Amino acid sequence: MAEPDGVSRLRADALRVGYGERDVLQGVDVPLPEGQITAIVGANACGKSTLLRTFARLLEPTGGSVLLDGAEIARLPTRDVAKRLGFLPQSPVPPEGLTVEDLVHRGRFPHQRLGRRSTAEDAERVDWAMHATGVHDLKDRPLDRLSGGQRQRAWIALALAQDTPILLLDEPTTYLDLAHQLEVLDLLVDLNEQGRTIVIVLHDLNHACRYAHHLVALESGHVHAAGAPQAIVDEVLVKQVFSLDSRVIPDPVTGTPMCVPIGRRAARAASTS
């Protein structure tokens, strides 16, 4: 597999990760290009979230390693990692009654000493994160009174307030309607253009092709292919990774690959026409 263009501050080398006696990831090499948006795609249970959680140091490898700036992430102090890498899990659940501003303030934890009050810099970064994500006007509102898209933007504001150069997001568009999905993805593009490296797990291959510079396609715990969407996404990949017959055509808006699935009914209709 070819190395991606650019430097990889975060990478997996021969990574194996399992639950019990079963390895979900089976010796994968995944360098993540700095300054780009990388989307991790694949069928359910292929290891997407496992890979992202291992990058975030929430899972311990059974073999291989995750390197952050050349050092094994498992050996780095937690606060040091939290200053360089932010992680947004899938469908996070906040404590009851928490307001948007309370939530976003929690992102400043890595920069605060034990027992020390928030500083002017903390307040400035929280304010900036809420403005950047469009939730500043909602800062006094409880999270449970927000729409799905507003809540997701509030969680992204938390990750932004952490002020890290690398952001990892696990399926941030899950449970959102189409308009809110695009709202979140457009926000991630804006953040990337400000210099952040973004790694995102996505279910929607077309969204991944449209928004990511670099794709990692997982199949049964292995890297099936990695590279620019235009270079790797075709009907063969869709069949092998998703077990789906399709036509892959240029997206009429962006020119990136667009997968048009062929279901059984459509296939039968085509064969009889």
Automatic annotation (TrEMBL):
InterPro entries: AAA+_ATPase, ABC_transporter-like_ATP-bd, ABC_transporter-like_CS, P-loop_NTPase, Siderophore_ABC-ATPase. Pfam families: ABC_tran. It is found in: Cell membrane. Keywords: ATP-binding, Cell membrane, Ion transport, Iron, Iron transport, Membrane, Nucleotide-binding, Transport. SUPFAM superfamilies: P-loop containing nucleoside triphosphate hydrolases. CDD domains: ABC_Iron-Siderophores_B12_Hemin. One of its GO terms (molecular function) is ATP binding. It is a peripheral membrane protein. Coiled coil: none annotated. GO terms for biological process: iron ion transport. It comes from the Bacteria. GO terms for cellular component: plasma membrane. Residues 10-245 form the ABC transporter domain. Transmembrane segments: none annotated. PANTHER family: IRON(3+)-HYDROXAMATE IMPORT ATP-BINDING PROTEIN FHUC. This is Iron complex transport system ATP-binding protein. It comes from Solirubrobacter pauli.
